[in-house]
Amino acid sequence: MNYLSELRSFKDWCLMNHPSTGQIALWHALMMMANSSGWQEWFPVPNQTLELLTGLSHSGVNKARQTLIDRGLIEYRPSDNRKKASKYKVNSLCKLMARKVNELENESGNELGNELENELEPQQRTSEGMLYKLNKTKTKRKQNNNNPPISPPKQKPGKKLYGEFVELTEAEYARLLADYGEQDLAWMIQRLDIYLGQNEKNRKKYTSHNHVLRGWVSDRLKEEKEKQSKVALFKRNNHREGESDIDWGYGYKPD
Length: 255
What we know:
Number of helices: 11
Distance between the termini: 114 Å
Structural class: mainly alpha
Mean pLDDT: 80
Oligomer: single chain
Shape: rod-shaped
CATH class of the largest domain: Mainly Alpha
């Protein structure tokens, strides 16, 4: 029995089975004692020794031991004589994991087993490789037996050009038109189109022109309307009676 390989297998087993801290401590204590005995198949360990190594109480050791027995990790022979220690046998987790993988592969078919075997490099024939095969076999078997075929991804609706660079789907344009009206939307599209046309970097910057229109372009529209409103208010407040409303430009006024 290879101590390091068994430790790696136990780590993988813990990830799949979620044992208690007492069960983990007891397994490690028994592995230490098995190693100290020179890997005898059956080796004696006093209950007091296990309590000392694990930090568990007498009942705690008994409870954790029974769970490990039920899960096939260890075997136990109680002593008939109180003066003699009970004997334990630690089963190889590497062999248990390999046997579990073979059972699953046989259920799933030889073709699946060969496919998984080919995916593993020689150095992966360790406990980690076994865990990888075990998980993948379970996943493929579940997909083959229970899950419906995966449907292809839905195609995104095509976009149309509005101006030279602004791209919107028909649904996006319809919602924008309903929210902002034809005149304001035309101003917003023109504003964004000018910005995107200034250089290629601007065009690569955005993936959704719909969100841009509803973002900073909408803010610019609001600012423009507020500005026009202030100008109109100023003109009304400073308009002199009899003065023409025509703006001749450059400060020129007719005589």
